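Question (not urgent): is this output format expected?
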Amino acid sequence: MAVCSFCKSTLVRENELLRRIGQSAELFDDHSPLALGTRGRYQGEPFLLVGRVQMASQPLGSNIADPSDAARWSEWHALFDNGHSAWLSEDNGGYVFSLEQPALHALPDLSTLSAGQALIVEQQPWVVGSVVMAQVLAAQGELAFKPDFQNTYRLIELRNTQDQVLSLDTSELPPRRYLGQSVMLESLSLSGTRDEGPEKASEGRINGRGLSCPNCGNALTVKLSSTQSITCESCDSVVDISQGLGAALAHHQHHNGTIAPLVPLGTTGRLMVNGQIGDWQVVGYLERCDVPERGSGDEVTFWREYLLYHRQRGFAFLVDAEDGWSVVRTVTGVPSVHRAGAVRLRGVKYRPLSTYQAQTVYVLGAFYWRVKAGQLDKVTDYVGEGVQHGRRLSSEASDGEIIWSQGQSLTANEVM
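Got this back:
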């Protein structure tokens, strides 16, 4: 399948014949550093980005026809010089490189799977990371299959302890199956990208038109490569721009007697993250609190999270909590489970610390996911055992998805 870059006609090749099946919707500008024609290397093999699809998803039971509440992301079709296809996809602020696998007819009942469930596929253990309803919104360039723009389907992501992702696409039966591995863009030797830093990315324009706050009319400046939500500097409204510029951008206002962030937005500093020193910029800020059970008498505890951005390595979080500072990043895989609730990830054993409901109460800046007012997530925190006491691990469950993050405690002097 291919989409004409001039008239957006969608063309399907059947043997030697071309058939027009309609028009593709307009792509929303996601400010990605990737582009059609970008070249790179993966596992020593050269590839070329020849197409992409833009996707939307919602939790099971939601109405994906309501675009204001749909998560959106892009998947890029990579064509290797040897003729094989692969996909370079966004994944919780990072990227995953996936290769299609032979279809399996002997699969468990996919209709009963839920996030966190363990299962065996081809004698290998996996854990369900997410189960959502997905739909192809738009396409560009050449694809190795004909996408269905009309119908939704169940998309299931399984994750394992080797940092792999197994995606099951049920738009066809048997389901298409893709095996992916987490990658950083700097490891792909990319050339021919858009070559624009975060400070150059469209400067407040989407699809060539100005972007204004729907509440006060103030101009909004988009600086991230994958911004989904942004805070108006004038009225503090949180604006959902995941759909690009529309007639009515979803937004909400919040009022909070917060003091200014200790680390101002836009600050850039050198920080050790996952064993690598790099220059990270503060692009977003959240205040969150736990929600005690009714009648427990527990006090509400607040903490702060700074979203950090590195153009080649993606995103990380600098966390300021009662027990000190830490820096964490989301991980692609899942930990292995041990006795008494302990888990092990990348050679480090963690013991459970606490489980609670976390609520987002205040936000500033730009985010790669859609920030929701009052959003609740179930969080479980873990701490490293023995000499690894400074290591941190947490899981967050919401909307049919479980996300794991791993990090390291920092001293206040290191942060300052």
